[in-house]
Write a structure and sequence with these properties.
This protein is of the alpha/beta class. It has eight helices and nine strands. The protein has two domains: 151 residues, Alpha/beta knot; 55 residues, Orthogonal Bundle (Trp Operon Repressor, Chain A), CATH 1.10.1270. A five-stranded parallel β-sheet has the order 2-1-6-5-7. Strand 5, helix 4 and strand 6 form a beta-alpha-beta unit. Helix 1 packs parallel to helix 6. The structure holds S-adenosyl-L-homocysteine. The site of S-adenosyl-L-homocysteine has 18 residues, from strand 5.
Length: 228
């Protein structure tokens, strides 16, 4: 999978994408991420990117020309399955959106700033708008990093068996069961006997029961999906 990210603050994206599983995905050649500084496409000698909004009111808006110039320069090099704008009013990211997007080949992700981007970019270039939750952040970089992480870990070959995404929460509409590691007892608090029994069948059923219990208690909404 190849992802191009358009940002006015590329520094904010470097660390989240250069460690742990994201680093592994890129080192294995399963994911490439290029970050493009919109400032390079800024207007005039000050490389201007934003301006006051028509109609008045506080806050700057990202101008259309630098964004479109960057998008079109990238489109001249490859075609994109989706051009995504990270936005609090987009569809809320969840595991099934992540699963579906992880099957795509080329994605472009646009990070906004200030009051957001000129609406005409959204109307004419953006194919999908994604939010990471009902709150407002100062820029789209952290949301973009969240999206890339959610997708990157799903690419075949990125996770090994021990960390397989299939057993994570939200796959199969269930939350993950509790997990334990050594020691088997700490201050008298014991790991459930069944996990030490070596009986894989019983362990699987215990985990399923716990997943179901936890989902009923914390997220009953996941269980009453009308498509089930
Ligand atoms: N005025 C806008 C918010 C702009 S916040 C509004 O009220 O809807 C500035 C930028 O941060 C946005 O352009 C977007 O790219 C990003 N952003 C903020 N919150 C976000 C969220 N919850 N999900 C995804 N992107 C978000």
């Amino acid at each position: 999978m190849h992802i191009d990210i358009l940002s006015v603050l590329p520094e904010l994206l470097h660390s989240p994408l250069q460690h742990s599983i994201m680093k592994r995905a890129q080192n294995k050649g399963l994911l490439t991420v290029d970050i493009h500084n919109l400032r390079d496409y800024g207007l005039g000698k000050n490389k201007q990117l934003d301006d006051y909004q028509y109609g008045g009111g506080a806050g700057l808006v990202m101008r259309i020309e630098p964004i479109v110039n960057c998008i079109e320069a990238l489109q001249a090099q490859r075609s994109y399955d989706e051009i995504i704008y990270m936005s609090p009013d987009g569809e809320c990211l969840n595991q099934s959106i992540a699963n579906a997007l992880s099957l795509k080949g080329n994605l472009m992700i646009l990070c906004g700033h200030y009051k957001g981007i000129d609406e005409r970019v959204r109307e004419h270039f953006i194919t999908r708008e994604i939010s990471i939750g009902d709150f407002v952040l100062s820029g789209g970089e952290l949301p973009a990093a969240v999206l890339v992480d959610a997708l990157g870990r799903l690419l075949p070959g990125v996770l090994n068996d021990e960390t397989s995404a299939l057993f994570d929460s939200f796959q199969d509409e269930l939350l993950a069961p509790p997990v334990y590691t050594r020691p088997a007892e700490f201050r008298g608090w014991k790991v459930p006997d069944i996990l030490l029994s070596g009986d894989d069948g019983k362990i699987d059923s215990w985990r399923y029961e716990k997943s179901l219990e936890r989902t009923k208690a914390r997220r009953p909404d996941l269980l009453d999906d009308p498509n089930d």
